[in-house]
Amino acid sequence: MIKLLPEEHASLAQYIYSACAVTLDQSKGYLIESRLSSLIEETASNSFTQLLRHLNADYSGSLKRRVIDAITTGETLFFRDTAPFDLLRHKILPELIDRRARAGSKMPIRIWSAACSTGQEIYSIAIVLKELLGDPDRYGVRLLATDISNQAVARASKGIFGQVEISRGLGDDVREKYFRPVGGGWQIRDEIRAMVAFKTFNLMDSFANLGTFDIVFCRNVAIYFTERDRISLFGRIERTLERDGYLLIGAMESLSGICPQFESKRHLRGVFYQPTGSR
């Protein structure tokens, strides 16, 4: 495998940052090497410098999309970290539905998975909704799943998972109830897949056309952003949330000290965020 030279790192890392806002310092050189090795071969490049020349000369944008797919699509699993889904089931949804009922509101419940990758997170959310509510249509549930990677969104929308993927985080009972065997893998059943709208979306772009949400999952993506970009991202997410909305981020992430417009709250083992001053 062709090695990324120290003197090549800065220019290639800058290209990646401009494409998808992911910051990769010198310690992440191995990630650039491994993720872009297939592009090195496909473009017959003899170095990462030559690959960068190909990328800058590609006015069709196809190679840029390949870089985004390679860099941003990571491993994920169903019900990852479990705590956010326990919060959704036992705290967030019951509170939200109760407040809506007391207010006589018929507003739909809108949930956004902001970095859905290949779909495991949003389908986990959909399964929780189905289990808890029975018929989510009664509550006007709307689920949006977005990711910067065209490839990831295409895979997520098909809802087909290999044997290893389906075994990560799913019990046999859930698999049998909500998936059907297809080829050498499993596909999410149509009743769950139909609950979700998928869209390719860059979190650095304007949120103006997304509308507002009651619950936003934005987990394990901002860890690759600069602090400035994290502040910008969560500031814009706060403006898309209803005043009593909920934000869930990754287990190793924190908004403390950088986003005063959010306050953290704890329930059992889980932590969630709400706009400051919300009920």
Would you kindly provide a written description of the structure presented here, covering whatever features stand out?
By secondary structure, the protein is of the alpha/beta class. The protein folds into two domains: 6-72, no CATH class; 83-275, Rossmann fold (3-Layer(aba) Sandwich), CATH 3.40.50. It is 44% helix and 18% strand. It has eleven helices and ten strands. The protein has helices at residues 6-20, 29-42, 48-57, 62-72, 83-103, 120-133, 150-158, 163-167, 172-178, 190-193, 227-240, and strands at residues 110-113, 142-147, 160-161, 179-182, 185-188, 196-200, 213-217, 241-248, 262-267, 270-275. The strands form three sheets. A five-stranded parallel sheet has the order 6-2-1-7-8. It has a three-stranded antiparallel sheet with strand order 3-5-4. β7 (213-217), α11 (227-240) and β8 (241-248) form a beta-alpha-beta unit. The longest helix is centred in the middle third of the chain and has 21 residues, at 83-103. The protein starts with 5 loop residues before the first helix and ends with a strand.
